[in-house]
Specification:
alpha/beta; C8orf32 fold; Immunoglobulin-like; Leucine-rich repeat, LRR (right-handed beta-alpha superhelix); six-stranded antiparallel sheet; 31 strands; 21% helix; globular
Length: 513
C-alpha cells in the first residue's frame, strides 16, 4: 500500500530528525550534517540581527556589523560560542564568558568561499539554551553577512495568514477537532500545570515543559499497521505517548484552555544542510512534521516540542512497549522565524484559518478558498486539487455545478476536513481520493455513485458512519481500511468489502439488496 508505506517514511523522517536533535544536544553541533551544506544555496539575508527570547520573553540579540559578531542581553550568562566552518566542521574561533553582552571579532578567522555557523550555548532565566541555527559568511569587502534559510522567504509568505487582529486571535482560542480546549479534563490539567503562574510567558513555558518532560515519542507507531492511533488532546493527556502532531495538539489545547492564542502548524522538516543541498527538499510541500505557534507579547512565536523531547516509547506494540527516558531540552521554545526556518518549511501556518486562494481543479472546474476555511468548487467533470491545497475545513459544491468524479488523490491528507456532502452528480470516487483525511467524521455518498477506488478512505480514522448506496458496483481494496470507528453499511453485492484490511471497520452492515 503506497500511502501506508509513505506514512511510515514520513514518520521515520520525523523520528530521525528527533534523533538528530539529540545528537545536536550531545555534541553541541550536530556536525555530522554540516559538511554537506551547499554554499551556492546559502544566500545572504536582508537582516543583520536575530532576536531570540528566553522562556520569560527576555531578548537575546545576535547581530553582525563590519567584521564583528555582537551578543546582546540583560539576562544571559555562561555563554559559550564556537564559530565553525561548514566545509570541515572545524572550530575556527571561540568565546567563553560570563558577560551578558560582548563583541566577537571574527572576520580575520573566516574565508570568503565558506559558510560558518555559531555553535552557541548560554544560560538565561535559569534555563540552558543551545542552538546551531545561526549562519554567517564574509563578503569580498570583509563584511560579515547573515545567511538565510533557502525556505525563509517561502515561510515569510506563508506566515502572512497569521493575523493579529482581535477577531482572529479570539478564533485561535476556540476548540477544534483533536484540540478540545473546552473539555473539562483538558482544562483541569492545564490549570494544574499553570497553578500559581500569572503571565502568559510562564504559562506557555510550563505547558511546553510538561510535554517535553512527561511525554514520549511513539517509535512503535511508525511500523504498526494493525492499530489506529488517536491524536486528540484528551486521549494523549492520559496516555502521554504520541508523535509530532499529538504533541502539537496537546500544546495548543492546553494553551487555549489558559486563554493563550495558539495554532498547530504543518510543514516539512530537514536539516539546513539538507535544504541547501537537495532541491526536492526545498520544493517539497507534502508535510512530514507538525509543530505549533503561540501568540505572546504581540507576536506569533514558533515552538517544536518534538525536537526537545528525548523520551522514546519502544517495543513490539502499543500495549507492551516501554519508555526509554531521555533529558528534556528547551531549545525550540519561541524561536524567531529566521532560526526556525533553518530546519522547518511552513506549509500551513494557521490550521484554524485558511490562505485565500483560487485556481483550476480540473479541465472544466475551479476552486476558491476563503479565510474562514471554506473550499467552494464549481464547474463540471472530474476534479483534482493541486498538490499542497489542503488547508480548509469544509467543502461546498456550488449550485448548478456538474461534478461527476472526485479524482485520484483529490483530497488526500486534507487533515482539517470534517464533513463532506457530495452532490448527486458524482458517479466515481477515484483511488486515494480522501486518503488520510484524519478529521473526517461524515461523508454523504449519493445514489448514482458507482465506483469507490482503492484506499479512497484509508486512514480516515474518525469516520463514524458511511452509507454506501445500492448503485455502487465496485469498491477497491483498502477503501475503508484504518477506519476503526466506522459503521459501514453496504449492499449485499459488496459484502466482501474490507476482507484485506489491516484495521477493518468497527461494524459492517450488509443490507439485503
Amino acid at each position: 500500500m503506497l500511502v501506508r508505506k509513505l506514512a511510515a517514511v514520513i514518520l521515520t523522517g520525523a523520528v530521525l530528525f528527533n534523533i538528530t536533535a539529540a545528537v545536536n544536544a550531545d555534541t553541541g553541533a550536530g556536525i555530522r550534517f554540516k559538511n554537506s551544506v551547499d554554499i551556492s544555496h546559502c544566500d545572504v539575508a536582508d537582516y543583520d540581527q536575530i532576536t531570540m527570547v528566553d522562556h520569560k520573553g527576555n531578548p537575546i540579540v545576535i547581530s553582525v556589523s563590519g567584521g564583528s559578531i555582537r551578543f546582546t542581553s540583560d539576562e544571559a550568562s555562561s555563554v559559550v560560542l564556537n564559530m565553525r566552518n561548514c566545509s570541515r566542521n572545524k572550530s575556527v574561533a571561540s568565546k567563553n564568558t560570563m558577560d551578558h553582552s560582548f563583541v566577537f571579532d571574527a572576520a580575520d578567522k573566516m574565508e570568503i568561499d565558506d559558510v560558518y555557523y555559531l555553535d552557541l550555548k548560554f544560560r538565561s532565566s535559569d534555563t540552558m539554551i543551545k542552538t546551531d541555527s545561526i549562519y554567517i559568511r564574509k563578503d569580498d569587502t570583509g563584511t560579515l553577512r547573515m545567511v538565510k534559510s533557502p525556505v525563509y522567504d517561502f515561510n515569510l509568505e506563508r506566515c502572512k495568514e497569521m493575523w493579529t487582529d482581535a477577531d482572529s486571535l479570539q478564533e485561535c482560542l476556540e476548540p477544534q477537532n483533536d484540540i478540545e480546549s473546552d473539555d473539562p479534563y483538558v482544562i483541569s490539567v492545564s490549570n494544574k500545570i499553570c497553578e500559581g503562574l500569572d503571565n502568559d510567558w510562564d504559562k506557555a513555558f510550563a505547558i511546553y515543559s510538561y510535554i517535553v518532560e512527561n511525554f514520549a515519542y511513539d517509535d512503535v507507531q511508525i511500523d504498526d499497521e494493525h492499530y489506529a492511533y488517536q491524536d486528540d488532546a484528551v486521549s494523549l493527556l492520559r496516555r502521554k505517548v504520541s508523535i509530532c502532531e499529538g504533541f502539537s495538539n496537546v500544546f495548543v489545547a492546553l494553551c487555549r484552555a489558559q486563554g493563550i492564542p495558539s495554532v498547530v502548524e504543518f510543514g516539512v522538516t530537514y536539516s539546513f544542510a539538507e535544504f541547501t543541498s537537495i532541491s526536492s527538499n526545498r520544493e517539497e510541500e507534502w508535510p512530514n512534521h507538525a509543530w505549533a505557534a503561540v501568540f505572546l507579547d504581540g507576536e506569533w512565536r514558533f515552538v517544536d516540542p518534538t525536537f526537545d523531547n528525548h523520551n522514546h516509547f519502544e517495543g513490539d506494540d502499543h500495549e507492551s512497549g516501554t519508555i526509554r527516558k531521555g533529558s528534556a531540552e528547551y531549545n525550540y521554545f519561541c524561536l524567531p522565524l529566521e532560526m526556525f526556518s533553518m530546519e522547518h518549511k511552513i506549509c500551513d501556518a494557521d490550521t484554524y484559518h485558511s490562505i485565500e486562494s483560487s485556481g483550476s481543479c480540473g479541465d472544466s472546474a475551479s476552486y476558491r478558498i476563503t479565510r474562514d476555511g471554506t473550499l467552494t468548487i464549481s464547474g463540471s467533470g472530474e476534479i483534482s486539487l493541486p498538490e499542497g491545497v489542503n488547508g480548509f475545513r469544509r467543502v461546498v459544491f456550488e449550485e448548478g455545478s456538474n461534478i461527476t468524479s472526485i479524482g485520484n488523490r483529490c483530497f488526500i491528507d486534507c487533515d482539517l476536513l470534517t464533513e463532506v456532502i457530495l452532490p448527486d452528480t458524482v458517479t466515481r470516487i477515484e483511488d486515494e481520493a480522501f486518503n488520510t483525511c484524519e478529521d473526517l467524521h461524515y461523508i454523504y455518498l449519493p445514489e448514482g455513485l458507482t465506483y469507490i477506488g482503492q484506499e479512497a478512505f484509508d486512514i480516515c480514522d474518525e469516520l463514524t458512519y458511511v452509507y454506501v448506496p445500492d448503485s455502487v458496483t465496485t469498491i477497491g481494496k483498502y477503501a475503508f481500511d484504518d477506519c476503526p470507528r466506522l459503521i459501514l453499511s453496504v449492499p449485499k453485492s459488496q459484502r466482501n468489502v474490507g476482507e484485506y484490511d489491516y484495521v477493518p471497520p468497527y461494524r459492517l452492515i450488509v443490507r439485503d439488496k
